[in-house]
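Protocol step 4 of 6: structure prediction from sequence.
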Amino acid sequence: MLRLKCLLTIFCLTSLASSTASASPKPHPLVTPAQMTQTRWVDHCEEQGNWRYPVGSSWAKVVGEKYALAHSLYYGGLGWRPATWLSFRSPTMPALMSQASPIQQAWALVQFAKVYGMPDLNGTCHGY
């Protein structure tokens, strides 16, 4: 019994030490913190923080999620058309932007910015 308590104590201390060490934020390898900040701002302006648009939108609540996914013109947190997403996403990313993580959407925005420049919101949410 004493041996079991010792093993549990060692396990708990090891788990605590590893979780404390990993608690510090590390940059994601796909995008820099500055690029993620810019992407979050575009998301806030375009879809008010809804990275999965049209899922969860007020429009989808009225017409239903399946209908909204099938008939929406814009998807994801950046409000892109499907052709834009398909042009700038990695082939390993989801086919629909609304299924992609915020990091994946940020990566695609960086690829877009290499061609067209990063969207400039001019200090407002009314356009680039």
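Step 5 (inspection) to follow. Confidence is low (pLDDT under 50) at residues 1-25.
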